Amino acid sequence: KMKAMQVISLTLLCVMAASAQMLRFGKCPKPLCRPTLIPYVGKWYEIMKLPTQFQKGECGTATYSPKSPGVIGVLNRELLKDGSINFIVGSAKVKHPSEPAKLEVSFTDIPSPPGPYWVLSSDYETHSLVYGCSDFGLFRLEFAWILSREPTMSEETLQSMQSILSAAGVNPEKMVATNQDETYCAPMNQ
After folding, report:
1. 119 Rama class: left (phi>0) / alpha (psi -120 to 50) / beta
2. CATH numbers and ranges of domains, the chain
3. Which residue, 27, 12, 62, 18, is CA-closest to 142?
4. Please, what is the average pLDDT of the chain?
5. Rounded to whole angstroms, how far apart are CA atoms 61 and 109?
6. What is the CA radius of gyration of the chain?
């Protein structure tokens, strides 16, 4: 039984490493989250992210809309290299009412269990820091996004978001910037 678990862990490690996911040794950290999500709805621009297998484009946006108490609609969009717009629709549900900024997000076209979506920091008007982590035996799979209400973000705010990630045990140097150039991203506004 132990050998089978080692094989599964090694296989998972190889698959995740090959697909540029942020797979790290150890259990997920438990950072603090924001106390409310009510003003969180609306459009956010992706400024930086930990690389993922499922996001291949630039000009990323996330639009959140209220659906019902404890449930937020999700529309993620990105511009692919071929000029087409990729999008996915889903919903984020509050996992426990005492922690409204810890959500589980699921997407209609992806047959997988819901993933963690935790709002670690946000002033709701200019910036947001989102983190997600899932444990897989001896390893954890991490996701992080730095979002802004505008396509740009001040260096000071960006550094503040990176400091919060670092304090939570996430290496912000692994994050990649998202191209939000107005001309390049123009097809997203048509």
Report:
1. beta
2. 27-188 (2.40.128.20)
3. 27
4. 84
5. 18
6. 17
